[in-house]
Amino acid sequence: MKTVSTIAVTLLFTILFSCTKKDNPPKVDPDPLPPVAFTIPQTRDIVMYEINLRAYSNSGDIHGVTMGLDKIKSLGVNVIWLMPIYPIGELHSVNSPYSVKNYTEVNPEFGTLRDLQTLVSEAHSKGISVILDWVANHTAWDNSWIDHPDWYTRDANGNIMIPPGTNWQDVADLNYDNQEMRLKMIEAMKFWVDTADIDGFRCDAADMVPYDFWQQANEALVGFTTKDLIMLAEGNRNDHFSAGFDLNFSWDFYNQIKKVFNGTATPASLYTVNTSETNNVPVGKEKLRFTTNHDESAWDATPMVLFHGKSGALAASAIAIFMGGVPLIYDGQEVGVEEKIPFFTNSPINWTLNPDMQDIYVKMLQFYSSSEIVKMGAMTTYDNASVVTFLHRLKIDEVLVIVNTKNAPISYSIPNDLLNTNWTDALTDDAVTLGNQLELQPFEYRILKSN
Predict the structure, then answer these.
(1) Which of 269, 337, 440 is nearest to 52 (CA)?
(2) For the chain, how many structural domains are there in total?
(3) Residues 330 and 431 in one domain
(4) pLDDT tens digit string along 81-112?
(5) Which of 46, 160, 206, 447 is placed for a possible disulfide with 152 were both Cys, Cβ 3.0 to 4.6 Å?
(6) Buried/exposed code over 108-121 (b: 16+ C-beta within 10 A; e: otherwise)
(7) For the chain, first and last CA: distance in Å?
(8) What is the rounded average pLDDT of the residues 191-199?
(9) Alpha carbon of 15 to those of 6, 21, 107: distances in Å?
(10) Distance (Å, rounded) from C-alpha 442 to C-alpha 315?
């Protein structure tokens, strides 16, 4: 009887163990998809589009972005930046995608690793690069790394801290004096290049992470892949470029263009900021120019509010796109969303808004993409109290941009060296002759190319 009982218990244990293994198979990442023949654009040729997954589509996921690739490509975009796709921490959570629970998984809210691989493959087939938002400064409190307290910044009592100088209660600050943590961070970055064929990273809060780590990470990535990865620093430290970044943010330009359109600064001040920002940028590197991004549209206001409506938003974009640097468009900007766009919650964009505005963005960005004059030409600026005017010249070819920054009609006196010159409107193909005066409507802009 005892032997029978032992056999029965053993059999029951075997059945239960087998069921457990079947019901909970080990996690296996899908194999990478076959690579698509594709060339990452040179830094100066980038037109970047930022995607908030929770806003871009009704489904709020990676598949929704894949379905929108043709529309994105029609803008002249050749790089998309995905906001963080990783599982979000649940401890002290505000549901921010910048609170990363696991650096090497896709948040089920957004889909699967295969969905990401498919997006990247489809994007590459359309000539579009994909870069991921990388959060290196901090993790969620329930990230498994928290089991290594020495990987984090701690106070005098040994307690792990939030990032100093912030009120970011949902995240724990990483300690870059710890070499083991550094290597784990770099290993996670390599994972996405290897597994999803990612084309680079936009590095969040880059000013808060030490220079020598960024240098170490960039050197490691260069040695890891033959791809010329796109590395974008969210910051404006000059040492980002020597650390290996290709681009960083034009925060000073963004703040100054707001002042110009609000009437608290002159066009000449914008020229000064443009020069000061670009003077120290090495050859082959660029500043990222924008009139909004996810932070500004969530916490500040959208361009429709900041720049006083559709005409003002387009006028500001004409300056940001054509004055210099690499242009960034944030999803919803091109259709003139007025309400703030959150990224802690889902808020799908109404893509039926302002189709005329979207058409203009398409024309602006397509002309920008095709114009070596704008990207490579020497720039001349012209002073006026209300009108931003600058000219790009490459050999004998020129592009002239004139923007009324006021919400009022302006009779603009044409600068002497532009008197009686003939042009073609780059957006309409209309012939334009500049006489002594140019009557500009509120926030009117003209983008002209030489005949």
Answers:
(1) 337
(2) 2
(3) no
(4) 999 999 999 999 999 999 999 999 999 999 99
(5) 160
(6) ebbbbbebbbbbbb
(7) 103
(8) 98
(9) 14, 10, 33
(10) 10
Identify the H or E element spanning 182.
helix 179-196
Question: Is pLDDT of 332 > 60?
Answer: yes
**Residues 413 and 369 occupy one common structural domain:** no
* Average pLDDT score over residue span 273-278: 96
Determine the pLDDT at residue 30.
Answer: 86
CA distance 357 to 69: 19
Task: Please tell me the predicted confidence (pLDDT) of residue 2.
Answer: 35
* 274-281: average pLDDT: 95
Q: Rounded distance, CA 250 to CA 236, Å? A: 7
The CATH code of the domain that includes 399 is 2.60.40.1180
Domain boundary among 353, 376, 399: 376
Domain enclosing residue 442, as ranges: 381-450
DSSP 382-436: E--SSEEEEEEEETTEEEEEEEE-SSS-EEEEPPGGGTTEEEEETTT--EEEE-S
376, 406, 434 - which closes a domain: 376
What's the token pair of residue 427?
Answer: 């957006």
The whole-angstrom separation of Cα 119 and Cα 8 is 51
Q: Which 3 state secondary structure label does DSSP give 430?
A: coil
Q: What is the mean pLDDT of the chain?
A: 94
Q: Which of 312, 331, 319, 355 is nearest to 442 (CA)?
A: 312
Rounded Cα gap, residues 235 and 206, in angstroms = 5
Phi and psi of 64, rounded to 5°?
Answer: -60, -35
Number of C-beta neighbours around residue 80 at 10 A: 24
Q: 19 — alpha (psi -120 to 50), left (phi > 0) or beta?
A: alpha
> Phi and psi dihedrals of 333, rounded to 5?
-60, -40
Taking the C-alpha atoms of residue 451 and residue 73, their distance in angstroms, rounded to an integer, is: 28
For residue 126, the Cα-to-chain-centroid distance in whole angstroms is 19
**Residue 322's pLDDT is what?**
98
Give the mean model confidence (pLDDT) for residues 272-286. Answer: 96
pLDDT for 4: 37
pLDDT, residue 157, reads: 97
pLDDT at 3 over 50: no
- Mapped onto helix, strand or coil, the DSSP state of residue 125 is helix
Query: Taking a C-beta distance cutoff of 8 angstroms, is the pair 278, 324 a contact?
Result: yes
Q: Are the CB atoms for 402 and 387 separated by under 8 Å?
A: yes
CATH number at residue 120: 3.20.20.80
At residue 26, the pLDDT reads 55
What average pLDDT score do residues 333-362 get? 98
What single letter denotes the amino acid at residue 244? G
Report the length, in residues, of the chain.
451
| Residues forming beta bridges with residue 88, ordered by sequence position | 100
Residue 38 CB partners (closer than 8 Å, separation 6+): 124, 125, 127, 129
